[in-house]
């Protein structure tokens, strides 16, 4: 379960919250949140055959990967 930038419904508050969370992660952790294309590359490079991202609980998403 993680935040996937751009995966939540097109709701103004959700988009604003995602972007603010992304800025916070860059400042505190030094790494921004990832978009789906970035997750896809990670999964493909790791050898997974597929994945599924489901927006769940506002700005958070459930990420499933398949062997």
Structure, explained:
- This protein is of the alpha+beta class and 67 residues long.
- The chain has one domain.
- 40% of the residues lie in helices and 28% in strands.
- It has helices at residues 12-28, 36-45; strands at residues 2-5, 34-35, 50-55, 60-66.
- The protein is globular.
- The chain starts with a strand and ends with a strand.
- The mean pLDDT is 80.
- One of its GO terms (molecular function) is methyltransferase activity.
- InterPro entries: COMT-like, SAM-dependent_MTases_sf.
- It comes from Panicum miliaceum.
- This is Trans-resveratrol di-O-methyltransferase-like.
Unreliably modeled segments: none
Domain tally: 1
Structural class: alpha+beta
Into which percent range does the helicity of residues fall?
Answer: 40-55%
How can the largest sheet be summarized? Answer: 4 strands, mixed
The number of helical elements comes to 2
**SSE order, as H and E?**
EHEHEE
What coarse outline follows from CA principal-axis ratios? globular
- Record the strand order, biggest sheet: 2-1-4-3
CA-atom Rg in angstroms: 12 Å
In what range is the share of β-strand residues? 25-35%
How many strand segments? 4
What is the typical, i.e. mean, pLDDT?
80
Cα separation of the termini:
18 Å
Quick summary:
The protein has 67 residues and is an alpha+beta fold. It contains 2 helices and 4 strands; from the N terminus they run βαβαββ.
Overview features:
4-stranded mixed β-sheet; single chain; alpha+beta; 67 residues; SAM-dependent_MTases_sf; Trans-resveratrol di-O-methyltransferase-like
């Amino acid at each position: 379960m993680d935040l996937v930038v751009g995966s939540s419904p097109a709701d103004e508050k959700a988009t604003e919250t995602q972007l603010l969370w992304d800025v916070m992660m860059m400042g505190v952790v030094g790494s921004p949140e990832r978009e789906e294309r970035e997750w896809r590359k990670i999964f493909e490079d790791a050898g997974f055959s597929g994945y599924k991202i489901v927006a769940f609980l506002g700005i958070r998403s459930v990420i499933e990967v398949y062997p």
